[in-house]
Structures are given as C-alpha cells and as structure tokens.
Design goal:
With 133 residues, the protein is an alpha/beta fold. The chain has helices at 26-30, 46-53, 79-84, and strands spanning 10-13, 32-33, 36-37, 58-61, 90-92, 107-109, 126-128. A hairpin with a 2-residue loop joins β2 and β3. The protein starts with 9 loop residues before the first strand and ends in a 5-residue tail after the last strand.
Length: 133
Amino acid sequence: MGGSTRAHSRACLGTDPHGWSKRTDPKQFLNIKDDGPHTPGIHPKCVPFLAKERDILGIGVETVGTDAGQAATFDPMFPCHTIMHGANRFGLASLTNLDKLPPTGAIVIAPPLKIVNGSGSPLRVLALVPSEG
C-alpha cells in the first residue's frame, strides 16, 4: 500500500517488485513450516483501522489468503476474516502484478461469479490505471 487511504478505497498490499506472486513453486508460495504457514499480511491492529476508521471497501493481497500465514496465533485470530470480512468488506487473494500499480488512482474491477449459497468465488481481477502524461 502506498499513498493516502481515503474512505471507500480498495487497498492492495504488494510485497515488493520481487513479490510473493512471483513465487511459481506451490511450496514456496504457501511457505509452510513446522509451525504452519509463513506469509506476509496486515498487522492485526491495522485491520480495524482500515475497516472502521478508513472505511475501505476491501483488501487485496498477493498471498494465498488475506490474513498473514501465522494469523491463527494473532489476537484476534484471523483479523481480516473476522474484522474486515465480518464488516462486509471484500478480500481478494493471489493477486499478481501489484508492483505495476500506482500508489493511488487505479480502478479495480473484480466481478464475482454468481455461485448459489457460496461463500467465495474465483475472479479475474483487472486494474485500470491512469494514463501517464
């Protein structure tokens, strides 16, 4: 995330130009150790700030889930799922090319499939970026 976060924004958390989404080996992408998965994520104290004080519409990440890999050990556990998604904010996972987005100004298009009684959906996420110049 970069730039200021306005109400009703969509926040995307990229890891860097050599980011998580560049991991093509499933074992490296999941990064499971003896004590569980180790993937980057949003600090548990930041989640309520984004959901309630910044009133973002949702979060997008490069990793397999919107919570960090060790989120089962957090207080609260799985803060993105319990707080962000519990506040009816969306969560997009396994995104790619976040390093190509500007800090602000991109428009995210993420149309879900209509799955009856489903709790999630595969998506083809697109981002429109302002032209330069």
